[in-house]
Amino acid sequence: MNIVLMLLPAIAWGILPLAVARVNGKPINQILGTAIGTLIVSIVVFLIMRPTISITSFILAALAGGFWIIGQLGQYNAYRSIGVSQTMPISTGLQLIGTAFIGVLIFGEWASANAKIFGIIGILLLIVGVSLTAKKDNKTPGNNQTRTVVMLVLTTIGFLVYNSIPRAMTSSGLAIFLPESVGMVIAVLLYIIFTRQPQVLKEKASWQSLLAGFIFSIAAITYILSVHDNGVNSAFVVSQLSVVLSTVGGMVFLHESKTRHELLLTIIGLILIVGGAIVTTIF
């Protein structure tokens, strides 16, 4: 079991929100830079590995990449609204809950009685964990906490589609990395056109966000390699530690403040979310 390879996705995905939040730009700048940075890395990987992929798989993977933009744009907007340390536990928990339901309803997972019992327990842990991390002590009249959480729930659909499409494909993870990134860039450009924001293509913040794309690529590639070497369950569970890193990083490096009560609830919520991820995956 390659421990370093197993930890790299968690570290990179944990650092990603912090790197994005440090860029002095709008979410549209950040998502554009992330998509282009990912495309650059995917082209390099494609030229080195030369994976084969059918036209149908290419289109499906590109579609998955387009849906990823929906989910990631929701996250980036939430960073500005409620902060990284609150966004990441909520977003991660919602993704885990949604992925578990899709696994059962579409892919026939949790076939045995024991799997169903542990699966339900895991989902309950995730729901309680998300609820605790979303808790705020002081709610002012202008607070947009509820609106942001609703937005995260809706945009999480993008992440769920992004994660589900490859599960129905036979192509390898590295083979679909390039078409996914192509779909990401196309989706971002369409969003720019429909929202009439062509100026972001020239703004400095957009190109500073290329670093986010490089970090995301490191996480995605090392996760694919970790799944190959360590197995899906081990690789997935360890990757969820990224939520701990990003949450703590938001408080330490981005100076996002929490009351003592909120901090306690966040710590308990993180433990429940990671625990829920383990229960729904291992058992």
Question: What does it look like?
Answer:
The chain is mainly alpha-helical. It is built from twelve helices and no strands. The longest helix is centred in the first third of the chain and has 28 residues, at 55-82. The two termini are 20 Å apart. GO terms for molecular function: carbohydrate transmembrane transporter activity. It comes from Candidatus Companilactobacillus pullicola.
How would you sum up the global shape?
globular
- Which consecutive residue ranges, at least 5 long each, have pLDDT under 50? none
Number of strands: 0
Mean pLDDT: 92
Distance between the termini: 20 Å
Strand content: under 5%
Bin the helical content.
over 70%
Count of DSSP helices?
12
| Global structural class | mainly alpha
Oligomer: single chain
C-alpha Rg (nearest Å): 18 Å
SSE pattern, N- to C-terminal: HHHHHHHHHHHH
What kind of sheet is the major sheet?
none
Protein name: GRP family sugar transporter
Subcellular location: Cell membrane
Keywords: Membrane, Sugar transport, Transmembrane, Transmembrane helix, Transport
Family: Belongs to the GRP transporter (TC 2.A.7.5) family.
Provide a short characterization of the protein structure.
The chain is mostly helical and 283 residues long. It has twelve helices and no strands. The model has no long low-confidence stretch (mean pLDDT 92).
